[in-house]
Amino acid sequence: MTKLLSVEAVSWSVDQQVILNNISFDVSRGDIIGIIGPNGAGKTSLLKCLLNQYKNWQGSIKLKNKALTQYKPHELAQTFALVVQNAPPIFDLKVYDVVRMGLLPYKALFARDNDADKKNIMLALAKVGLASSEAKYFNTLSGGEQQRVLIAKALVQKAKILVLDEPTNHLDIFYQHQILQLVKALNITVIMTIHDLNLAAHYCNRLLLLDKGNLVCDNSVDQVLKPELLTNVFGLPCYRDDAKHCGVPRVYFYPASDVSTVIPSALNSALSNNRQGESS
Ligand SMILES: Nc1ncnc2c1ncn2[C@@H]1O[C@H](COP(=O)(O)OP(=O)(O)OP(=O)(O)O)[C@@H](O)[C@H]1O
Question: Whose CA is nearest to atom 26 of ligand 1?
Fold first, then answer.
């Protein structure tokens, strides 16, 4: 796969507190990368460095072999589309106008939309299942619908890399899957922070596990979702079910005090497998 983004030894500190420590990884075209880790691990900070929103990080981030810092803002806007929860008040706009904002990196200020622009906007809204919502106010939509509008904006933006910060937060299970299915079906490169490890397993082809600003593991779902590793990072006993529901493993966490009453036999066998793995 072609390398799109190359992150080398990126560190970021605020007031001598190290928030990201020497992070290196590559992103290839078509990757769907989930950044996982506990609260405060540095997931959002890493996204913000990738988007060049912070200026004082150290290290190197290259987009197609050229330093990110050498790109003009509109060039970056043509490359990255950001989808965040809790969109700012600027989105007191109609759905059509929010999606239209995806055209801005390509347009002169105050340029009018042509027929092709309008067609693109409506096509993007149709792709996210919101063609009949163009005249509604963005702020009146549900969280899941707002996410879909922002994805439509990203489509109009023709972004090469879709960056999502906790896209499934506040969504019910149906919309969690709907958003991630939609994201996967776009067939573009995706980098997202995500708390739900089983959702991440389902939709990502690679996971980056962060802990206290360090990249603890960058690998396939199968290699990152190891009970021992996750127990170390999240501080809770973890059991992995390898029955491969829909082709992926599932992980479960338990309060330490409840472990022996929840699934004693399954957990014991998982722990003993771990121990065997350690000794081999
Ligand atoms: N602009 C900032 N100034 C000072 N500290 C910051 C800033 N941004 C983030 N931090 C600190 O960096 C650490 C990592 O924050 P970050 O938001 O990246 O974590 P996260 O992994 O995304 O957490 P969560 O899962 O809670 O969203 C936290 O301790 C946070 O307080």
Answer: 39
